[in-house]
Design a protein that fits this description.
- The protein is α/β, with parallel strands linked by helices.
- It has four domains: about 5-125, Conserved hypothetical protein from pyrococcus furiosus pfu- 392566-001, ParB domain; about 150-265, no CATH class; about 305-330; about 335-363.
- It is built from 16 helices and five strands.
- The chain has helices spanning about 35-45, 45-55, 80-90, 100-110, 125-140, 145-160, 165-175, 180-200, 215-220, 225-230, 245-255, 270-280, 285-290, 295-300, 305-325, 335-360; strands spanning about 5-10, 15, 65-70, 75-80, 115-120.
- The chain has a five-stranded mixed β-sheet with strand order 1-5-3-4-2.
- It is elongated and about 90 Å long.
């Protein structure tokens, strides 16, 4: 049975950040203090946190969660690295190499500059990891989705490395108070993300571990045809065993490659992913999308062709009736009106001829 954590005020200079923090992008693991501080200043509202601590002092109820490092007898901060960095900057603003004016302003104007921080010292890092699972995945201070997935992967590798995925997911879910299928989906999604990361994000301009949206993967794995397209089979004991590398690359391209108008072919919204899911279940629609048709146009092809034809005809008729109702109220017509009407007439005659030819063939 593990011993309970011990509360302790620890000198600031006896605390050091976790070099494998799941909240940090992998590209920052092992980086220098300066690089990590700069990243947190630019991405994590660190100046605002400095100001809050500088004006109100460090709240004792927000203890850092630490474990002693046997190598140098200092303490590794497993939970609370933003707060640690904020206090370090309040004591030494020269550590900042970006947003230096803001940091210096907070340093000069605030009252409190704590030199020791309240901490909970845990006997092992594993004990903290178990606690963090509840706090940040199912609890009140949830992490971003990629942070959750990276953390769950760490738990799997550390606590259940020999278990099959379903077994590990079930145990982790029970431990953190979550659902097994949710944990499994994030673990499988993280494996896909790692593959994309290992492929250098397919060298797509401006795409990296700080700009990739992990929720696109998690949301896609809720959709049967996208999941099959990516080569994932949740019925298999190893769902990623037949992962389709070329389809994953294509899918990432649809989401992140931008055209000359700075637009992607597919947005990561629920609506777009649902349309893509239906397109991937229809070979004609998929081929049209691959050949350059827009998402909306390819999506239309997933309907029964007779239904699509008739609904399009009805919509056109409704719009023409609406135009007929208001035409006498128009004082000045747009210059292209006559040409548009001629084109409508030509299309109507063409469709009529095609329908009549088809009916003649049946007679």
């Amino acid at each position: 049975m593990s011993s309970k954590p011990v509360f302790k005020n620890i000198d600031l200079f006896n605390l050091k950040p976790d070099s494998d923090n799941p909240r940090m992008p992998k590209s920052f693991h092992g980086k220098s203090d300066e690089e990590i501080i700069n990243y947190l200043l630019l991405e994590s509202s660190l100046v605002e946190l400095m100001q809050a601590i500088g004006e109100n002092d460090f709240f004792p109820g927000e203890q850092l969660l630490v474990v002693r490092d046997s190598k140098d007898d200092k303490y590794i901060v497993i939970e609370g690295n933003r707060r640690l960095t904020a206090v370090r900057l309040l004591n030494d603003p020269s550590l900042a190499k970006v947003q230096t004016k803001k940091v210096t302003k907070v340093f000069n104007e605030t009252k409190y500059k704590p030199s020791s921080i309240p901490c909970l010292v845990f006997p092992t890092k594993d004990e903290i990891l178990k606690y963090l699972g509840y706090r940040h995945i199912t609890g009140i201070q949830t992490w971003k989705l990629l942070e959750k997935a990276r953390y769950l992967k760490r738990l799997q590798d550390k606590l259940y490395p020999d278990d099959e995925l379903n077994s590990a997911s079930r145990k982790i879910a029970k431990m953190i108070g979550s659902r097994m299928d949710y944990v499994r989906r994030l673990l499988v999604g993280f494996d896909i993300y790692k593959f994309i990361e290992d492929e250098s994000f397919f060298k797509i301009p401006n795409l990296n571990d700080t700009t990739f949206h992990f929720n696109y993967i998690a949301d896609s794995l809720n959709k049967a045809h996208i999941t099959e397209f990516l080569g994932i089979d949740f019925k298999d004991t190893v769902p990623n065993a037949k992962q389709n590398a070329s389809n994953i690359k294509e899918w990432v391209g649809w989401l992140f490659v931008r055209n000359s108008e700075n637009q992607t072919r597919l947005k990561g919204t629920s609506t777009d992913l649902s349309k893509l899911n239906k397109i991937l279940g229809d070979l004609t629609a998929l081929q049209a999308f691959r050949d350059g048709s827009s998402l909306s146009r390819a999506y239309q092809l997933t309907d029964d062709m007779s239904n699509l034809f008739y609904s399009s005809l009805q919509k056109s008729l409704n719009y023409l009736e609406q135009a007929d109702d208001v035409v006498h109220r128009i004082e000045k017509f747009p210059s292209a009106t006559t040409d548009d009407l001629k084109n409508i007439y030509k299309l109507a005659r063409k469709i009529k001829n095609t329908v009549e030819d088809f009916q003649d063939d049946l007679d």
